Amino acid sequence: MKTPSQPRAIYYIVAIQIWEYFSFYGMRALLILYLTHQLGFDDNHAISLFSAYASLVYVTPILGGWLADRLLGNRTAVIAGALLMTLGHVVLGIDTNSTFSLYLALAIIICGYGLFKSNISCLLGELYDENDHRRDGGFSLLYAAGNIGSIAAPIACGLAAQWYGWHVGFALAGGGMFIGLLIFLSGHRHFQSTRSMDKKALTSVKFALPVWSWLVVMLCLAPVFFTLLLENDWSGYLLAIVCLIAAQIIAPHDDQIPRTSPCSLANCIVDVCRDIVLGTGTTGRQYHQLVYRSLCESSGIQY
């Protein structure tokens, strides 16, 4: 039986997906060892930073998807995300043991991942009509591509770090992302038919600045914000707020989760912000643990 041909654009999406996974999992395989062996972090500090980083890269795609719908469009968001991830790995690849450069690099990667992750799948979905039977095959190719990159990354980056040094391993991860970006850009003519952004959502809001100005502002401010979060161990506060808001959104669709009143939710968020400002009370990680425990108990899940 003849396999239906896929749109040409999918092969460029698959290519950048392979290298994005290579970049992400290559760096992640080295991070804990780099923190403990090279920078001298104790185990608790290293695990805490790694956990905060791993959590934030899966929170930011929510914002990245919103920005793509309202301002950037999926393809522009993917390109911006790939550029940021490349830049973040380049900063990690610089031969310096500065903790500030570490936090800055992780913050840049977090921002890039947020723009990239939620929009690469959406960009693939735009290649097909609603009832196109090739859609399932396209997404299967995308997931297979990710698996290829994630399997090869720890081996290649790990060997590079072992033979030539930590920063070479990080630079290799960034180089992979840059290669994927170049391949993706070379296929720009195949993406002419994709939707750039949500026109209805865009026209319903009047922006004082042009779209490119918002992109520049976000690229400048977002890494600074996440650098402060990581350097001051405030990420737990942000994750606690995200958990509270997520529970509020999910509750109406699940009878097993008791819905919190908006007033109670607002009070919880105010308490978290108060402790950030005053520097007193429960730490960010403890807030995250308390919120997670509460959600588990309300859902009948053993904590």
From TrEMBL:
Question: Where is this protein localized, as stated in its record?
Answer: Cell membrane; Membrane
Q: How does it sit in the membrane?
A: Multi-pass membrane protein
**Main location class:** membrane
Q: Which UniProt keywords apply?
A: Cell membrane, Membrane, Peptide transport, Protein transport, Transmembrane, Transmembrane helix, Transport
Question: Which InterPro entries does the annotation name?
Answer: Dipep/tripep_permease, MFS_dom, MFS_trans_sf, MFS_Transporters, POT_fam, PTR2_symporter_CS
Q: Which family does it belong to?
A: Belongs to the major facilitator superfamily. Proton-dependent oligopeptide transporter (POT/PTR) (TC 2.A.17) family.
The protein's name in its UniProt record: Putative oligopeptide transporter
Q: What is the lineage of its organism?
A: Bacteria, Pseudomonadati, Pseudomonadota, Gammaproteobacteria, Enterobacterales
